[in-house]
Structure formats: structure tokens, C-alpha cells
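Complex record, two chains
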Amino acid sequence: MMADELEFHRWLRARAEIGDGVDVSIGDDGAVCALPNGTRMVLVADAIAEGSHFLSDDPPELVGRKALARNLSDIAAMGAVPLYALATAALRRGCPDDVPRRITTGMLELAREFGVRLVGGDTVSHDGGTVLSVTVVGCIAPGAAILRSGARPGDVVVVSGRLGGSFPHRHLRFTPRVAEARTLLDLGPPSAMMDLSDGMALDLKRLCEASGVGADIDAASIPVHGDVDPGPETLRHALEDGEDYELLFTIAPEKWEIVKAAWPHEVPLTAVGRVTSGALRLVSGGGLGVPWPRGGHVHT
Amino acid sequence: MMADELEFHRWLRARAEIGDGVDVSIGDDGAVCALPNGTRMVLVADAIAEGSHFLSDDPPELVGRKALARNLSDIAAMGAVPLYALATAALRRGCPDDVPRRITTGMLELAREFGVRLVGGDTVSHDGGTVLSVTVVGCIAPGAAILRSGARPGDVVVVSGRLGGSFPHRHLRFTPRVAEARTLLDLGPPSAMMDLSDGMALDLKRLCEASGVGADIDAASIPVHGDVDPGPETLRHALEDGEDYELLFTIAPEKWEIVKAAWPHEVPLTAVGRVTSGALRLVSGGGLGVPWPRGGHVHT
């Protein structure tokens, strides 16, 4: 994320052409594209940079792990199965010889855990900190991808896991919710889904905008992570810290009952509100709605 | 390319697993991977960094163009058809607002020219120069990819275009040889192929090593680009400057006759020598062989 990214994204989305093999393009967690025989792929790409997404003294293994994990989180958010990864690394000129190996070791460990094969990439040296860019190719049945745009009034808003306090530790070691997302597809599917990377305040706003809906979110129901210190700022941290890499999804109420009853994973699911045809609001206690917080963590 | 890249690549190739959906992995111009239904994709990824692959005052449109063009050159070298591209950009914090748009405009123009769709990506800000990373997904029939490892003694060694003097101008505007490579597949196919990015001195050495062969290259036959100043250093420039982005391939003599007779493209093809079971040598005039130059442009 960069300062002017939102405006650039608007400019870019206006140039994204759908059709002719492209089911979903720029603007969702990933693209859905066809090969000439009609087979669908899900394609995601994501970069992390020293100073923004990790610190210069973070272990290279965990930095490599994070670069891949963020992409797996995007693949999960589409409901796809990750298959192949490619990675490029721009490394500080003169960095220790073992850095590319350590970065790759971290990637390979996570890749193995998720059945993903690292099949290509590139390394360059430059006068700046480490920048890692990863692409993951996944597969999905035609029409099965879960987009941000499918939320309908009346749907339940659900998040996986607990939110907030991810930086400076958990963000390097999070588990992408690939298995959980696949279960949701089997049991639901959700009407809309994305992964929480910039904080629920910003990300739910994006989902609502993509779907043309609003939501009433119950402040008291938001699951706060144990990494957040209790206090008056607790809710703000849960909504705005970012780097949660949990699933945020909307689902029809009758399907939510099925998902709740059959949920086989350790990671909890929490209903936090309802989709409406109105604005996005934070509802606390007695039902008084306040405007949705503007925050969310935008890397600059 | 970085200082320790060759050793890192050896380390990496030792960890690349073939099979189970992966026909070709790290070590060639691209990977060949299967989707669950057996459909094959070709996957390539490549990064360019300010100060190594372009200069800070190069027009962002041409920098974006180059980032994509290098990947299309890799796709061409595999004999594949490029379909989709994803790009990430790490931009200097505080760079002018129009830079990401100008980079993207350059990419989109080239993408359109080659029927490629830009379907995703990411932008990040950091304390360093611009780093662009692009991935291209292409398609190919199972078993049809042209690898570096197929050269056999007796094959003719051929290059497209003319070599040398690419930096500081041509390297930003080269035309990836996608159409030419497809014609070679139809007419030949070549026994081995790669694109010339680091200079023929280094790249032919790689092709020979991958194939377990040598070659006698006729110094006088090497097609030198008009961008190289005539003089005693002319041949060295043609072999070592790099950034040619021409095709280097080997082909059985009878197929070479067919290709020569039917070649429909403006870009010339030049036979520069023969594959042997001996060493890689430069043969000048009367047939006296000298050891192959060690050079080639490695970005550090």
C-alpha cells in the first residue's frame, strides 16, 4: 500500500477489462482467469518491503514465510486451492550471502505445509532494503470463486479468529486460512469473502462498497486478540491494527446455521453483525449506531 | 542477478522437485506446471531494479514496458503463448503521484500489443529505488515446451536479431520474440532454446551446460548490432553486453533448412556454429578454436 494507492487503484480498475477469459480482474483478492480450454486459475500477487511490512532485523526465514503467507491468504479469500508459487527478491547490495537461502527456506517450509510448489523466481541486488514479491497460482471450479461483491442485505457478517495486535510479532507467523475457506465453500458457500490485511475498519468498508451494501456491526461482538492490551483503545486496535489475515465473510442466515453446527476447525468463527441496505455503522450495546471508523492500517 | 546468484541458484535447483504436476521447475526460462485436469501452464517471474536494470531518470512508461517485456521474452524462450500478467511495484516513498500510472501505462501498451491481460498486482512504498516484479502465465501443449537441455551434437546454433550495445537505449524498447518463437515451434521445433539476457558468452554456456554438450562458434558469423561501435572490442560487446533479448536456439540441420526457407519474420536468424560433444569454443577464421570468453553481463 502506498500513499496514493486508493486513487491509483480507482484509475487501474477503470482499465481492467472483464470477459474474454477473465472472470475477475483487479479489485478483488485475486483474479480468476481461463486457459484456452476453459480451465480456471486464480492468480494473486503481493509484495512486501523492509521498513513497511517487516523490519531489517526480522529473521529472513520469517520474512520469506510472510511474503508467501500473504498470497496464500488471498488465495484462501477467493476460496481457491493454492498450487504454485513464484518469488522475486530485491536484496540490499552486499547483504550477507545466506540471506536469499534463508528467505527461500522460510518460503519452502510454508509451501510444503500447504502443498504448494515453488517453481520460479528471480533475485536482483539494489541500493535499498529487501523487497519480496510473490505470485501464487491456484485452481478453482468455474464460477466457484467467492468475491467481495456478493453480500446481500440480511446476510450475517462473520470473521475468523481474533483481531488486533498482530504487529510486531504475529504478522510474521500467521497461518493463512486456506483450509477454513475450503470448508466454508463446502458448507456454505459465503456470499462474499476477503482476507483482513488492512484492518476490519477499512476492509469491511471495501467489501460493502464492492457489494453496494452497508452493515450494522455489533461492537461488543468483535473478537479481540489476546495480543491487544485491554483498555479504552482495545476496539480501535481490533478494527484498525491490520495484518490479521483472518477471513471476513458474509453468508445467508440459514447457511450460517449449517456452518456453525458443522465447523470442524480450531479457529473460531464469530458473527459480528448483519448486512443492511443502509450505511456501514458500528452499533454498540443498546443499538445506537455510530459512523464506521475511518481507520485501518495503510502501509505508506 | 546478484553477486552470489550462481551459487544460490545451484542451492535452489537442488531443492526444485520435478513431477507431481511440475514438468519443468527452477533453472530454465520458465516453469511448466499442470492444473489438476492436466492442462499445462508456463509460469515466469522476473524483477528489475533501479540502478541495475534502468536509471532513475528513465521514463516510467519504458521501465514498466521493460519489466513486462523481459517476462514475455522468457515466455517466448519456452515456446509458450503469453496470456496473463501480474505486476508488483515497490516505489520510493514520496515519488511523484503519477509514477505508478505511468509505469502501468507502459505495461498496458505492451500487454495489448501481445494480447496479454494485466489482471493483478500490488504497490508498496519503501526507502529505496523502484523495483518492479512481473509474473506472466502462458499456455502450451503438454510436452511442447522448448527447454535449455535438448541440444544434441550436430545441431546448428542459431541466434535471432543482432547482438550487443543494448544498454543504454535499446534495452528499454526491445520487442520480445514471441511470434518468432511460435513460428520456430511450427517449423522446427528447435532442440533447445533460451532468451539472451546476460549476453551470449554466459547464456550459451548455460545452454551447453544444461544440455551436457559443447559448441564451436564461428566468431566471424556472430551478428553484431549497429549500436556497437566498430573496433577491436566489437565481438566482445556482441558476446558480453547482455540485454539482447534475442532467441538463442539449437536445431537439427535438416530442420534448420526448413526454417531458413520458410522464415516469414523481419528479424533475421543467423547460424553461428555447431553443437559438439566437446568444449564450448570460439573458432575464428581458419578453424583454430580458443576457449569461450568467460564474460557476460551479470547484474550485481
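Note: The helical segments of chain B are 5-13, 60-78, 99-113, 178-187, 200-211, 234-240, 253-262.
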